[in-house]
Each structure stands twice: as structure tokens, then as C-alpha cells.
């Protein structure tokens, strides 16, 4: 699963490379980002959860960082997701 955000409409190309059972594989796709997205709240929350997890891993690896911690707090509050720095 790959999550992301985009700003602005236009053409995009995605290339994903890796290995399956030790053999190299590559997938490519072209698509057009629309001017306005069909918002799906559950997909947005999945993205936010993945973003919080990524930022928390960054804190674990690099230690305390006020900007990263604030990013976790802001994302948690905006999307209603519990984190070590927020509460219900």
C-alpha cells in the first residue's frame, strides 16, 4: 500500500521496483490527478495513521525533535487519531 498527498492537477507517472521471491520486478502506471479529489475520509485517515507512524519511527531513530513531535500532534488532532502525544 502506498499513500501520499498531491497538490494541483496534472499528469503523473509512478514506477515501483522491488523483488518478489528474489527476482526483480517493476511496475509502472500513468494517471492524471484531478483538479478536485473525491475525498474519502477513511483513506485520509489511513494516510494520516501511516504519516504518524512514520514520524514516530523518525523520533525513535533520531531522538527528540520538537518539529516532528508537533507534526504528530497536529496530524493526530486533525484526523482524530490517538498518538503518544495526544489523548481522546
Q: Total helix count?
A: 2
User: How many β-strands, per DSSP?
Assistant: 2
Sequence stretches where pLDDT stays below 50 over 5 or more residues: none
Give the end-to-end Cα distance, rounded to a whole number of Å.
28 Å
Beta-strand level of the residues, as a percent range? 25-35%
**Helix and strand string, N-terminal first?**
EEHH
Based on helices, strands and strand pairing, what is the structural class? alpha+beta
How many structurally independent domains?
Answer: 1
Task: Name the overall outline.
Answer: extended
Radius of gyration: 16 Å
Main β-sheet, in a few words? 2 strands, antiparallel
Portion in helices? 40-55%
Biggest sheet strand line-up:
1-2
Mean pLDDT, all residues: 89
Q: How is this structure best described in words?
A:
The chain is an alpha+beta fold and 88 residues long. It has one domain. The chain has helices at 41-62, 66-79; strands at residues 10-20, 23-33. The chain has a two-stranded antiparallel ribbon with strand order 1-2. The longest helix has 22 residues, at 41-62. It starts with 9 loop residues before the first strand and ends in a 9-residue tail after the last helix.
Amino acid at each position: 500500500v502506498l499513500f501520499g498527498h498531491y497538490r494541483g492537477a496534472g499528469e503523473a507517472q509512478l514506477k515501483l521496483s522491488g523483488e518478489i521471491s528474489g527476482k526483480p520486478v517493476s511496475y509502472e502506471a500513468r494517471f492524471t490527478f484531478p483538479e478536485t479529489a473525491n475525498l474519502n475520509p477513511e483513506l485520509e485517515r489511513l494516510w494520516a495513521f501511516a504519516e504518524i507512524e512514520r514520524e514516530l519511527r523518525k523520533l525513535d531513530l533520531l531522538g527528540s525533535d520538537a518539529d516532528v513531535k508537533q507534526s504528530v500532534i497536529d496530524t493526530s488532532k486533525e484526523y482524530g487519531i490517538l498518538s503518544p502525544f495526544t489523548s481522546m
